[in-house]
Amino acid sequence: MTKAGLEKKSSFAFCTGNMIGLIILLVKEGRKVRLGIVARRGFWGLKGDKGENGELGSKGDLELKGNPGEKGERGLVGRKGAKGLAGSSGSQGPPGIKGNPGRQGKMGSSGNQGMPGLRGQKGEKGQKGNCKAVELIAFSAGLQKRISFPLLGSPVKFDKVFLNENDGFHAESGRFIATTGGTYYFSYHFSISGKSLKAALFHNGQEIQQMFGVRQPPSNISRVSGSMLVQLSEDDEIWLQILNASQNGLVADESTDSVFSGFLLYPD
Q1: How do strand 206-213 and strand 169-170 relate by DSSP bridges?
Q2: Given a cut of 70, is residue 7 above it in pLDDT?
Q3: Please, which residues bridge with residue 48 across strands?
Q4: Structure pTM?
Q5: What is the DSSP annotation of 171-193?
Q6: How far apart are CA 147 and CA 29, in angstroms?
């Protein structure tokens, strides 16, 4: 649509609007109005230019300050923020109070061996001690052929004497009698034939060590040995004795050996 057409429609709309307004005014005043045909409403006119700003109004009256409002509810906890940058190092603080001593540490490893020291001076000669001569006591004796299968309940009589230092062994009784107190070592070696053997070492009538041997076929001769250290006082007696008559296979001949031996190890 052209500019002239727009202006014509605008004028028509303006006139129509003025006519309606006049009719309303006359009716209000009580005048008779002859109404004609109402024309069709025209088009809206173009928007006018913006008017200038009005003058600034005067400042209103200052009212009294109101009372503080009520404290609101606590808000929700916010999310954890990102880690901040590291701050610069602060100045060194004053020394703290001295603490208690700590626990003792573990023992360290051994160090390297040091160099040998200088040889010391020779010491003074000591005083002469009391030297007691040691009495030599030792024996060893065997069985004669005729002593095979000795009697039950009495010492075995080893009558074939090989050694008898200081005469402590008595072949006629088969007993050893200590001539001095001390620690003695005794040993025995028996040959067995025909049946088993059950015997024991006695100290002053008390059994202190028992031995047991069995003949092992097909050999006709078997052997049993033993030894023991015994503390003896002067005049104490030691011997070997058969314990069971049915277990008395102790033999002696040219081809076998049954020996009882002992000696003083060191005196009291």
Answers
A1: unpaired
A2: no
A3: none
A4: 0.50
A5: TTTTEEE-SS-EEEEEEEEEEEE
A6: 185
